Amino acid sequence: MSKSPIDVLAMGNAMVDVLANVDEAYITHHDLQRGAMSLIDEKRAVELYATMANPMEMSGGSAGNTIAGLASFGGKGAYIGKVAQDPLGETFRNDMKKQGVIYNTLPIIIGAKTGRCLVAITPDGERTMNTYLGAGLHLSGEDLDADLITSAAITYLEGYMFDPPHAKEAFRTTAEIAHSAGRMVSITLSDAFCVDRHRDDFAAFVEQNTDILFANEAEITSLYKTNTFEEAAKIVGTKCKIAVLTRSAEGSVIVSDGKFIEIKAEPISKVVDTTGAGDQYAAGFLYGLSQDMPLETCGRLGSLAAAEVISHMGPRPLVTYADLVKKAA
Hints:
Blueprint: E1 6-11, E2 15-21, H1 24-29, E3 37-39, H2 42-51, E4 56-60, H3 62-73, E5 77-80, H4 87-98, E6 102-103, E7 114-121, E8 127-134, H5 146-151, E9 152-158, H6 165-180, E10 184-188, H7 192-197, H8 199-209, E11 212-216, H9 217-224, H10 229-236, E12 242-246, E13 252-256, E14 259-263, H11 277-290, H12 295-309, H13 321-328
Parallel strand pairs: 1-5, 1-9, 2-7, 3-8, 5-6, 9-10, 10-11, 11-12
Antiparallel strand pairs: 2-4, 7-8, 12-13, 13-14
């Protein structure tokens, strides 16, 4: 991969995560979709927030987490995502800039507030997410920065954004700009329920516009409506150049050129919070790929980052990944 001014440009729903530990009764009492991401309105967001004890707030958003992780590895990252001109939006913007990430998307001045994701974490580390997209819904083709897209070796797209129709069109336009400049396009399926809602559109985008696909076991089997992971892995191998399929404690499988590369999960003493595991795996993998590392090495970096983030609360690293890699060497 030829060296580019930017390693990875990510585009996604910009938001702030609100995380809280809960018990199983909380999930049932509030009629939450356990282990999934559900879209909610502002009223529901306010109601749920009021029920969360000792919540922790931090910048999040799937693609935002990934680009922050890439920066922690030492990669040069950029981000496109919409926030409002409000306190949470300012927090998000400042966090990105502190990470050294290029972030120039203009905020919304009047109207929707900055999006937030309310994350209920049960004792087993599973996260149940309820998301108010807010300003993120207003990202459109007008926010695309062609210079950034053509300057990035890889453009990474967040599947959660497939819900608004204009965002799908922005994805297609972004892919066209990137490919016309000889760059690579990557997408994460984000959530099995999201795949259920947009299966045909996702399948078409993967086959027609995607070089690198990220998906977990539930997402890839949902996409191709297969009974087993193995069946889905064989199918996706014919649809894009590289498919990166994560399987939690069972590690991950990289499918490329008819080969299946198995990567073991990094051992940890205790799973505290699985929020951001897939996001950080993508960060490690994309960093390695942008530096022309072998696919197996890319997978190991992804596994290392995922293990770090699930060992504590929050979707972003608490240590510098570059230092972690040095210690693991």
